[in-house]
């Protein structure tokens, strides 16, 4: 699904005018697909069936070896990567310090839950507010420089936050042990997060997933609205040529700061949800590897697209949590645990396969960057376009044959 504005073809002759009038009267698939209602509805449907397909559906879940908690975690990191993409993919600013917003929101949410209120909704709001305020302060300073200096400044701020949490603020953060005092109450005062949803537990699992999935849909709707607003157009203009954008009278620095704050707020939502998800805040939330991971997720899925980073988060976490647990790489359809068994005795190709998951992820990342610069989501878009063109050509040939 492209995030670029739909271009309307101009009429060239009488036949073209008829075609254009018809297109205006009957919305094309492209226009329906780009509509906000369709984007939000399709996202809600995908979020609803995702845990079932991933963890409980016949055959598919058996092949994927997925589980409910990983589906929840993918959505949380997907929000983080989507917010990061608003900065990198639409304004061209590469930040290596987003761990400061993820970790800051996670700690703020944890402390808020222990000291003020255990309401999950209020906990998320508290963590998100803290991250947005932090992003405004760090962005105000970091955006005074551009390019590599901006990236280094954000990295430095992220590492400063890590060492602050490690030692000077250990009486709040728990130091190396992380924050363990998270208190979570019932959702809206009624639903226990760990309990299954009555009548729908086979589909969505627990109330925790409902909360995370609902917030994920809201985040997609917000990001889609931003990208199709004048703000989104200005972000793209800055990405293409910020000097030209400044020449036409735009306050480029202010728009960059706004993009940084919005991106930080998305990271805050994700960090707060992670606290709700795990009921614990590890010190590594602030570490630079967290910033590096979200960069890899965004690039892997495809920067400059709304859903690409979410897909990238899913692939990254799948390799980290599922592939890393595979002890032996066997030939497909061999062995007793396959959903379709051709040979009872497994044919082992490589022992200790899971130990190489970092290498596997690195190879996948390099292959995507070299062969598919628009990421895996861009590859899917290209394949979809090729199939549509192939189908259109086939229809024309059939029409000509008649």
How would you portray this structure in words?
By secondary structure, the chain is mainly α. 67% of the residues lie in helices and 2% in strands. It contains 18 helices and 2 strands. The chain has helices spanning 14-25, 29-34, 36-56, 60-64, 68-91, 99-115, 120-142, 147-166, 170-173, 201-204, 207-227, 230-240, 242-247, 252-278, 288-301, 308-321, 357-371, 375-401; strands spanning 328-330, 348-351. A two-stranded antiparallel sheet has the order 1-2. Helix 3 (36-56) runs antiparallel to helix 5, helix 5 (68-91) runs parallel beside helix 11 and helix 5 (68-91) packs antiparallel against helix 14. The model is unreliable at 4-9 (pLDDT under 50).
Report strand %: under 5%
- Number of helical regions: 18
Q: Termini distance? A: 34 Å
Sheet having the most strands: 2 strands, antiparallel
User: What's the arrangement of strands in the largest beta sheet?
Assistant: 1-2
